[in-house]
Amino acid sequence: MKIGYCRISTKGQSFHLQEDALRAEGCERVFRDIASGAKSSRPGLDEMLAQLRPGDVIVVYKLDRLGRSLRHLVDLINNLSERQVGLKSLNDPVDTTTAQGRLITNVFASIAEFERDLIRERTRAGLMAARARGRNGGRPVGLGKEAEAITIAAEALYKQNSLSAQQIADKLSISKTTLYKYLRHRGVEIGSYNNKQKVMSERG
């Protein structure tokens, strides 16, 4: 069964856009929440999770409607996977019922792990710098691992051929120039996406 979930941040907003898209996707039930992105209390989400059965697929309009944070989203996807429940986002390249979709979720998990490691490294480096200088504070370490995680996500999204380079850059919060730099770092052939899209459009 396809089950929809939609969330709005305030009562002044409307569920119509999300719910219409979920119904068009074939969702038989739709759960709703009115809550800000960071708010932990979501009765609709909790009720939906409690009623899921193996083989069900959760459908959302966008991933940011579901997870409070990247870490929360990854944990939720892992939990759904263990329960044999799929997840599909209508406006993101995520569909855990397909091989490509599972690849992207694994990328998200890698980024979340890097993020957790960075927090530990920054805390440790900050304490060491503070002791060395005889005061609190200190400059955190560089972002090498964070950048490396983003290059992995960039490569996966680029090779999927479902988003333009600018859309990928926007999703990763980097410039298109930085995106191409990361792709070259991963040994990805620049321009392969545009060529494939051109061939596909000509065939259409």
Structural commentary:
- The structure is a single chain.
- The protein folds into 2 domains: about 1-90, Rossmann fold (3-Layer(aba) Sandwich); about 100-204, no CATH class.
- It is built from 8 helices and 4 strands.
- The protein has helices at about 15-25, 45-50, 70-80, 100-135, 145-160, 165-170, 175-185, 190-204, and strands at about 1-10, 30-35, 55-60, 85-90.
- The chain has a 4-stranded parallel β-sheet, sandwiched between helices.
- It is globular and about 45 Å long.
- The chain starts with a strand and ends with a helix.
In short:
The protein is of the alpha/beta class. The chain has eight helices and four strands, in the order βαβαβαβααααα.
What is the radius of gyration?
20 Å
Structural class: alpha/beta
Residue-averaged pLDDT: 76
The separation of the N and C termini measures 32 Å
Number of helices: 8
Strand order of the largest sheet: 2-1-3-4
Secondary structure: helix percent: 55-70%
Sequence stretches where pLDDT stays below 50 over 5 or more residues: 135-143, 195-204
The total domain count is: 2
Order of helices and strands: EHEHEHEHHHHH
Note the beta-strand portion.
5-15%
Number of strands: 4
Biggest β-sheet, characterized?
A: 4 strands, parallel
Give the CA-based shape: globular
Secondary-structure topology with pairs:
Blueprint lengths: L1 E7 L7 H9 L4 E6 L8 H9 L5 E4 L9 H13 L3 E4 L9 H35 L10 H17 L4 H8 L3 H10 L6 H12 L1
Parallel strand pairs: 1-2, 1-3, 3-4
Features:
204 residues; alpha/beta; Rossmann fold; 2 domains; four-stranded parallel β-sheet; 8 helices; disordered C terminus
